[in-house]
DNA sequence: TTTTATTATCGTAATATTGCGATATAACAA
DNA sequence: TTGTTATATCGCAATATTACGATAATAAAA
């Protein structure tokens, strides 16, 4: 037990859940918000900005990278992270498609 | 360690992350999808529909109830769960407000 | 009342996540 | 080369999540 039974769900359900899961941590929301505010970002900024250790920030950045929401390029000694706008839009669209589904308003409850 | 440091993030960041976290499991996405398709729902249906034990389904329903996304009313022996449309819309709006934030397109990466 | 059906909760095992110190890696600076 | 700075990765401890059997609670049916 303890392991999520992904095999019993559809690819779409798993995909959507994975995206939501990555967004389901305040540090990762805060990182995205910081990048949005700064227009760009360097990891070390985040260590000062948020109150988390460098190793922890790096780990969160990796998860955001895994779903393609951010991308990073090496800029000399540091790495410049920014939003991947095409993936950003795709994710927004996916979420909206899910939430825009019609449902009967004759709520039984 | 192992505990999320919610105290260092804003209420808005924590709130948004909590919503995403609840949505971040394929079983919960599947449950919502089932309710959407059926227009209404009874827990026991889900046990047959999804391949999870009754206790597990009940637990997932509880988490969806915690953020107000679904509500249930007792219908004789069973419980009728359905989407709470006002919370549903609020959540969709919150997600869109986050994803609609402007960001510079002069991506550095 | 007893039985049956439905859902919730408890307890627990397995696994995942979070956070961080220590260390590795890479690139520039002296 | 040696030192410095920035980031990634490893390893581990603490905590959280997932799943489920067992059982409790509730309401209708017999």
From TrEMBL, chains A, B:
UniProt keywords, alphabetically: DNA-binding, Transcription, Transcription regulation
Record-annotated HTH arsR-type domain positions: 8-102
Keyword Transcription among record annotations: yes
SMART domains according to UniProt: HTH_ARSR
Top-level taxon of the source organism: Bacteria
CDD domains found in the cross-reference section: HTH_ARSR
Gene3D superfamilies for the chain: Winged helix-like DNA-binding domain superfamily/Winged helix DNA-binding domain
Family annotation (PANTHER family): REGULATORY PROTEIN ARSR, TRANSCRIPTIONAL REGULATOR, ARSR FAMILY
NCBIfam families: HTH_metalloreg (NF033788)
Protein name as catalogued: Metalloregulator ArsR/SmtB family transcription factor
Organism per entry: Pedobacter flavus
């Amino acid at each position: 037990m303890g392991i999520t039974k992904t095999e019993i769900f559809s690819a779409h359900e798993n995909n959507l859940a994975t995206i939501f899961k990555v967004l389901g941590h305040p540090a990762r929301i805060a990182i995205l918000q910081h990048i949005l505010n700064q227009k760009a970002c360097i990891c070390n900024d985040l260590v000062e900005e948020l109150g988390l250790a460098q190793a922890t920030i790096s780990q969160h950045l990796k998860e955001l990278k895994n779903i393609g929401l951010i991308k990073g390029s090496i800029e000399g000694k540091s790495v410049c992270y920014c939003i991947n706008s095409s993936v950003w839009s795709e994710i927004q669209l996916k979420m909206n498609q899910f939430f825009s589904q019609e449902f009967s308003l004759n709520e039984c409850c």
